[in-house]
Amino acid sequence: MTTLENRPVAGVDPWTGEALEAGAVENSAEEVRAIVAEAAAAAPRLEALGRRGRAKLLRALAQALEAERQQIVSLADAETALGAPRLGGELTRTCYQLEFFAGVVEDGGYVEATLDPAGPTPMGPRPDLRRMLVPIGPVAVFGASNFPLAFSVPGGDTASALAAGNPVVVKAHGSHPGTSRLVHEVLREALVAAGAPAGALGLVFGRAAGESLVTDPTVKAVGFTGSLSGGRALLDLIRGRAEPIPFYGELSSLNPLVVTAAAARETGAEIGVGLVASVTGSAGQLCTKPGLVLVPAGTDGDAVVAAAAEALGKAEVVPLLNRRIHQAYLSDTAGLVRAKEVSEVASGPKPGGGYGVAPLLTTVDADGIPAEAFAEYFGPAAVIVRYRSQAELLAVVDQAPASLTATLHLGADEAPKDLVTELSRRVGRLVFNGYPTGVAVSWAQHHGGPWPATNSLHTSVGATAIRRFLRPLAWQNAPAHLLPDELTDEPRAPLPRRIDGRLQARH
Fold first, then answer.
1. Using one digit for the tens of pLDDT, what is the confidence trace for 339-374?
2. Are 20 and 13 in contact, with CB atoms under 8 Å apart?
3. How far, in Å, are 125, 237, 274, 371 from residue 295 at the CA level?
4. C-alpha–C-alpha distance, residues 109 and 388, integer Å
5. Is the pTM value of this prediction over 0.90?
6. pLDDT at site 2
7. At what angle do helices 50-67 and 69-80 cross, to 10 degrees?
8. In whole angstroms, what separates CA 386 from the centre of its chain?
9. Active site (catalytic) residues
10. CA 398 – CA 388 distance, rounded (Å)
């Protein structure tokens, strides 16, 4: 008889819908507790590596993944059908963000080292105060279905948490268990070889194991990329804990894309083609996919729609990732096209068998827009809203839920400040004359947004993603030999610091 302790976890070939060889087994509550305990025991050693040691560790992890590139990409493709080119690029991104966070750690500015020497103030004598950000403790990370590498076991949440000095336990996504296990084995071996404790990176499988993970009192923060319903379920579990902990969720995003009348007139056909590429890439299974497209009524806007319809008819999309996503897409888009205000513009070719679906474009007039137009369709579908005036355009923007991104295609000399202001209140990233799919890893990047895009002010991509897994700690009149290096008078590893209110670039 199969029990929770040995229930196999197998991926499915999205091209056929047939189960693959089991990639793992589900973990029991007892096993989860043991893995979290191992992570907690690893925390002091990981922090003791210091910034230089953790930077070296992150680079070693990147090199280990790169050395197993062919095997990792091949297995990930078998489980996700996303294609070797896309997955090869994702692995490159994954390795890069590990290297990137090594640079963030070496820079040291992220710890916000601040020194206020003892002395007189208008309030009276001040003690010696020194403050910086320190690791929060073991972090739980939930792997994403649509990114088996960059947002899963070796992904950005893991990289930023390790960089901050926290051990990580990942709950693997059921869509790619074999890939998750393989990557975990590669990384654990690299951790040990680099002088870090193996427990710094744990892995669990199964829904019940995920619930045990977020309710374990040793876990101090949770990173999650997934559905709004999944995020709400985890939040409910966290609220039931005796000790509240932060939950950093990337949940749902419509990502409105606005085409102004001038842009439609100047580059309408080009915009239509680029839009379809953004909507159908990775079968539309991207958190930044533009799902609501606002196009002016009239001849110029018609050219945008016609070019998009032609491109969609030629688009070839990979299957959806799993049965749940496939069923939801079919059900949700069927409800969309049944709405009496909505008209179908174009439908592309459908792959045969498995979880294949046809890409879909629909239109609706701005003055009769139904609730269905504001839903997120996780797959290759988008709603084109035809507006007749600036007032109609702003009214639709006002109704749309907050998102990760908003995109504006403008004419050469346009500066629609009211529209930019309205969109900026509702998103975390504004894209001009481009497409929101594709999120660069950089110091200036922000990948978040108001609810329901995320439930956090922090980003999950870019240098400041590390801020999620740190907490402030102040030292008052501390003996010099008990201070962390970053707060000593002469730190061994230079970093930016604010001393007596003045920022010093390096010291």
1. 999 999 988 877 778 999 999 999 999 999 999 999
2. yes
3. 63, 42, 14, 18
4. 49
5. yes
6. 36
7. 70
8. 31
9. 250, 287
10. 16
